[in-house]
Amino acid sequence: MIQTAEGFAPKLGVVEDALKHIQNSGSFEGSADVHILEPLIDSANAGPEDWSRISTVIADAHDAYDGFVITHGTDTLAYTAAALCFALEGLDKPVIVTGSMLPLTVPGNDGERNLLDALRAATTAQVGVWVQFAGQRLHGARTRKSHSTDFDAFRSEPTHTPPIQSGPVLVNHIFKPVKVAILAMAPGLVTDIFQYAAEQCDGLILRCYGSGTAPESTNLDRALKTAKARGIPVLAVSQCPEGGMAFGTYAAGSILRDNAVIDGRDMTVEAAYAKMLHALSVDGDPHKRLGRSLCGEFTAT
Question: Is residue 12 scored above 90 in pLDDT?
Answer without folding.
Answer: yes
